Sequence to fold (143 residues):
Amino acid sequence: MSKTYEADFYTWAMTQADAARRRSANEVDWDNVAEELEILGRGEARELKSRYVVLLTHLLKWVYQAERRGRSWANTIANQRDEIADHLAHNPGLAPREAEEFSKAYHLARRDASSETELDLDTFPETPPFTLEQAKDGAWLPD
Fold:
C-alpha cells in the first residue's frame, strides 16, 4: 500500500476509506493513515491561525488608518469573527491552542498591515494592542 501512497494519493485515499468502511483492518495502511490524520488536524489549526491573520490585519488597519475605515473592513472583521467562532465550534479541541495561534497570527498580521497600509512596521506594536477576547467580540471595535 505504501507504493500507492507515494505514487497515487487519490487512489490510496479511496482504497483506505473503503477498507475502513468495511472494517478490514488488514487492508489499512495504518502508518500512513495516522500521518494523514495528523496532517488534517494540523490543517485545522492552520485554518484558525489564517483567519486570525485576516482579522488582526483588519483590526490593525482599523486603528492605524482610521481615515480609511469603511464598510468593507467592517464586513471583513465581522465575517472573520463569525468564521472563527464557527471553526472553534466545529473543532473544540483547538481551544487550548487558540491563544498560541492568535499570538502567531499577530506577528503575521503586523507584517501584512504594514505592507497593506505602507506604514513602517515599527508603527505597529510588537504585541497585540487588543486581547484575544476583544478581537473575537462582535460588539467591539477599537477606537
In short: Residues 43-136 form one domain.
